[in-house]
Amino acid sequence: MVDDEEYKIERETYRGQQYSQIYFTRLHHMRTILHSLVHLWKPHLPVNTVLGLEQGKECVIVGTIYKHMKLKPSILEEYSKERSAVPLVRPHNFMHSDDHLVLEDESGRVKLSGDSLDPRVFVTGIVAGLHGKETSEGDFLVLDVLEAGLAPQAPIPPGSREDKYVVLVSGLSVGSSASNPLQFQLLVDHLTGHLGDEKGKSKQEQSIASQIVRLVITGNSVELPQGLLAGQNLASKDQSKLFEPIKELDILLTQIAVAMPVDIMPGLNDPANFALPQQPLHRCLFPGASAYNTFTSCTNPHSFKLDNIRFLGTSGQNIDDLAKYSDATETLDFMERTLRWRHLAPTAPNTLGCYPFTDRDPFLIESCPHVYFVGNQKNYETRVIKGSEGQSVRLISIPKFSETGIAVMLNISNLECHALTFSTDLES
């Protein structure tokens, strides 16, 4: 069951909405959660506002964190650099040793200090509770940090469950120089049970393929020639170049939709709106696949349930943006943080484009998923994380298929997963 209603925008309008409304909604929602946790965390301390701080007196404050970054891009600086003769170099990460954090609520803001709060971990937009005291310099010395933690999770009904598989793939990039049509066909043949024979290992693979119940494509399915997207009138030969990758993708999707349900999410490079939540790719792009009721064009983020297992995932923009403004050892660390902060895209709208919602923040995580996946990453990674109330989440980082030939196969009976590697190298 697809559950993307919260990410759909029925009537888009850009008539003077301010992004402050998203931050206000986020703070109001998260503060209610954090206040309910404070009495268990620090029951002996009062909860103050920034304006109500008293020097030297320990307390708890709850607010939105702002990260002051020396290297954060500025539109005015970008413009001036682009007009200069010196080539513009864009760093992969904008962190600097002078970065510091500020906490803000409706009453004011205060600079944060102390070793308990590492600026490398946090980003602008997170709502947190802080235990500390105001110093003589006017800073708030942080002694301890309270995050919301994993949201409540619906239990999985007990009992034996038969093996069923969901295949996750991202970054097909049909039309790019890195894409390999033969590799795509191997993927299609495996999903539809046409790969191999009825002997030995191939028979076992065919048996598992027969248990695949859904394919989820997590963004960046096509790569259109950027030079043809500058708004100019296109000659007929250029138009064919523009639509050829989409036609090729539709052929692949049609072959799969005949055999099983297919969910396709938009990504950064797909012909969809740029800002999150990205709306479903228009069905007219896929005349072949959309003829089947097994084909579903979904939003990004995408949420669905299968056999009481709740899936939640994105095409990767939220994690890629976190990697620009914070630090972690691996992709899974970023993913875990978003769940424990209870927010899919904390850097939106500060550095990640999003629609200016006025009455809600759709990226708040109110129900913890059982499976959380993110597409278009460098490597395949997975781990299981646990929550304080028995929550258990399978994290999956899905690599770009066009670069790695890897898709991910998840068994929903036990939430175990493994990589599927497709290679056209005769020597491998």
From TrEMBL:
Residues 18-145 form the DNA polymerase delta subunit OB-fold domain. It is found in: Nucleus. Its EC number is 2.7.7.7. Residues 166-379 form the DNA polymerase alpha/delta/epsilon subunit B domain. One of its GO terms (biological process) is mitotic DNA replication. InterPro entries: DNA_pol_a/d/e_bsu, DNA_pol_D_N, DNA_pol_delta/II_ssu, PolD2_C. One of its GO terms (cellular component) is delta DNA polymerase complex. It catalyses: DNA(n) + a 2'-deoxyribonucleoside 5'-triphosphate = DNA(n+1) + diphosphate. Keywords: DNA replication, DNA-directed DNA polymerase, Nucleotidyltransferase, Nucleus, Transferase. Pfam families: DNA_pol_D_N (PF18018), DNA_pol_E_B (PF04042). GO terms for molecular function: DNA binding; DNA-directed DNA polymerase activity. The function of the small subunit is not yet clear. Belongs to the DNA polymerase delta/II small subunit family. Heterodimer with subunits of 125 kDa and 50 kDa. This is DNA polymerase delta small subunit. The gene is POLD2.
